[in-house]
Amino acid sequence: MNIDTKNLKNKDFLWDAIVIGSGIGGLVTATQLAAKGAKVLVLERYTIPGGSSGAFHREGYTFDVGASMIFGFGEEGYTNLLTRALADIGEKCETIPDPVQLAYHLPNGQEVVVNKDFDQFISNLTSLFPHEEAGIKAFYEKCWKVFNCLDSMPLLSIEDPAYLAKVFFKAPLSCLGLARWLPFNVGDIARRYIKDESLLNFIDIECFCWSVMPAEKTPMINAGMVFSDRHAGGINYPKGGVGVIAEKLVQGLKAKGGEIAYKSRVTKIIVEGRRAVGVKIATGSSFYARTIISNATRWDTFGGEGVKEALIEKEKVPTSEKRWRNRYQPSPSFLSIHLGVERTCIPDDSHCHHLILNQWEEMEAEQGVAFISIPTLLDKSLAPKDRHIIHAFTPSSLSEWKELEPSSYAKKKQLDCNRLISKIEQVFPELKNNIVHQEIGTPKSHRRFLGRHNGSYGPIPKMRLPGLLPMPFNSTAIQGLYCVGDSCFPGQGLNAVAFSGFACAHKIGAELGINAWSLPS
Fold first, then answer.
1. Judging by DSSP bridges, how do beta strands 15-20 and 40-43 pair with one another?
2. CA-CA distance, 226 to 222, in Å (whole number)?
3. CB-CB neighbours of 264 under 10 Å
4. How confident is the model at residue 457 (pLDDT cuts 50, 70, 90)?
């Protein structure tokens, strides 16, 4: 899209809101505001929407950029945030239910399958740890208590006092119950009931598989959502691939009068006095709005160690953001491979999602854990006939890649890819000889194409922190500037960033006076 800004003065606000980046958090914010009547512009640096929840196409394959284990697509309750976000703009994704969230392949040959059926999962786990049956049930019961509190109330901005009053009146016991868990991490609760260190290791990997943190650093609120929603709303894969979610959100945004501009890399947030008033993009054009929302990472927005050029000028960075950087650090990025393989090397009764960890001490190590996703077990249309997709990824830090010469970089890519394929062969031993298509992505790829600091998955605590309490909300100390995505409460994960999008749009809606008086039904 082309907008002539030559004669636009700073005081002339063309948009109600400009959103920087079209990740799911940014798109949920944009669509929620557009649905309320706001005039919204989304500026995306790449050629497709979705960020790490986008998709790309190669030779008849549709590959998910990031993970394909999706929460938030159930039909009931308030925690089905993707379903709600799409419905609010008249859209819907057809989904395919997955009967198993994850199959764990752990040290000493330990295998745990997390079925959608909660009783079956508990039975699987207690068969391995019969002496901890009471502790297992007590711990996961506490996770259900957190989830039931969340699922009984509309999830909007807890920065808005009017919302808090309304939701407390609607569900006072749930509010009080939820507040109780805010200061706690999963490890705090697990150790109250469980003593077996091997089982506590399993709780660690349960957290790590989506938070990239062990239990002692993972907020109990987040775990309550994930550990229970997989049995309540379930894991539901969007037909056509994860990229369909962002495409539907963009479609709904446009239907509500919003706009999205691709190949529009924002280089600066324009701040006058103490207020953000607009943005400047790489072509030199400037756009102005009443509110600016950054879906970039907190580091890309406000700077920090290793950031060459942030969106906010260094001298205008609030003290609160510097304090945040003292508490949090970027998580590792990933080495990822996207494979097209012959259908015969994957048994038809295989699970879609797997996690491989060979030694417990390797959990947080460079390329220690391997994640595997085979979405064609759910949706055959993603690959040519008689082929499967395998998307595998393992945590990897940019520091392992950034100083390499081109030849050394290419060699390391292939060596590390081969190592990851060997891990996958622990589950699918016929894989290597059946690969017909291969794509390799490194942390440098994630940084380049997703525009994320160090290619990071999101922030993790530098130290043990009290649950979600230190996590920043959507508002910032710069008037008119908001943040959304995994650098905000409640953190990483597709459903979590959708939550941050709902919260951000509600907070801005309150400022603009466009929110409905009543809570969502």
1. parallel
2. 6
3. 20
4. confident
Q: Token digits for 450?
A: 């997703």
| Two structure tokens written together for 410 | 């290419």
| The predicted structure's pLDDT at residue 3 | 46
What is the bridge-based pairing of β-strands 275-281 and 95-98? unpaired
What letter represents residue 192's amino acid? R
Q: Give the CA distances from residue 418 to residues 320, 415, 431, in Å, rounded to whole numbers and listed in that order.
A: 44, 5, 11
- Contact between residue 274 and residue 479 where contact means Cβ atoms under 8 Å apart: yes
**CB-based burial of residue 4 (10 Å sphere; 0-12 exposed, 13-18 middle, 19+ buried)?**
exposed
- Check residues 205 and 156 and name the one with the higher pLDDT: 205
- What b/e string do you get for 133-161 counting C-beta neighbours within 10 Å, with b at 16 or more? eebbeebbebbbbbbbbbbbbbbbbbbbe
Joined together, the tokens standing for residue 209 give 């598989």
Tokens 């957190």 correspond to 146
Cα–Cα–Cα angle for 424, 426, 432, nearest 5°?
Answer: 55
Please name the residue that has the structure tokens 């043990």. Answer: 464
The answer to whether residues 53 and 327 touch, using CB atoms and an 8 Å cutoff, is: no
Structure tokens at 406: 């081109």
> Do the beta carbons of residue 205 and residue 106 sit within 8 Å?
yes
121-133 confidence digits (pLDDT tens) = 999 999 999 999 9
Strand 61-64 and strand 55-58: the pairing is antiparallel
Q: Side chain identity at 399, as an amino acid letter?
A: S
Q: Is the CB of residue 447 less than 8 Å from the CB of residue 398?
A: yes
- Is there a contact between 376 and 383 (Cβ–Cβ < 8 Å)? yes
Orientation of helix 197-211 relative to helix 220-229, angle to 10°:
90
Q: What is the pTM of this model?
A: 0.93
DSSP state of 517: S
Confidence of residue 8 (pLDDT cuts 50, 70, 90): very low
- In 146-265 the beta strands, taken as DSSP E runs, fall at 235-238, 259-261
* Cα–Cα distance, 446 to 457 (Å, whole number): 9
Strand pairing class (370-373; 353-356): antiparallel
